[in-house]
Amino acid sequence: MTYKIPTDVQILGRDIKSEQLKYHNKRVAVCKEFTFDAAHHLHCYDGKCKNLHGHTYKLVITMSGFVNSIGIAVDFGEIKEIFKSAIDSKLDHQYLNEVLPPMNTTAENMIVWIWEQIDLQLNDRGLSDQGHRIEELKLYETPTSYAVMKREWMVENDV
After folding, report:
1. Which pTM was predicted?
2. What are the TM regions of this chain, as residue ranges (predicted)?
3. What is the spatial order of strands in the sheet that 27-40 belongs to?
């Protein structure tokens, strides 16, 4: 294979027109991964997780939208701001049993709470009105163990 070094960069207005930036009208999902560290323990659990312990959680957010005039469906920076505001600021380096609503702090319970918090941010920022929505969340408690929440499980009778 031969590699070519570009001799010129594409210029808007000369090489491509503004109306060409949006290539399609399809819904597209984008994903962004984040980590946060937190401690917790489980109630009514007969195993080592009944003891106070910590995790580096990994959250994978899959969000979709229709591309705008420049071809972006959901801005990665916007997803980062939402995560920082709705999740990281509340859970990072915290004792989850203390900062989450009364619940057993399992990944299965936490992922629904996380969905609700992100969804509130989408509404508050007016992004839901623009067609942005969560499609799926994955919350890793360890590198090989995670909970999944999908849109069709979270929302009834939604289009």
Report:
1. 0.92
2. none
3. 94-95, 27-40, 53-66, 133-142, 145-150
pLDDT in tens, 51-84: 999 999 999 999 999 999 999 999 999 999 999 9
Residue type, 84: K
Q: Residue 22's closest CA among 70, 73, 74?
A: 70
Q: Token digits for 145?
A: 């163990």
CB atoms within 10 A of CB 82: 26
Alpha-carbon distance of 14 to 83, in angstroms, equals: 38
Catalytic residues: 49, 93, 141
With beta carbons less than 8 A apart as the criterion, state whether 105 and 42 touch: yes
Q: Is beta strand 133-142 parallel, antiparallel or unpaired with respect to 94-95?
A: unpaired
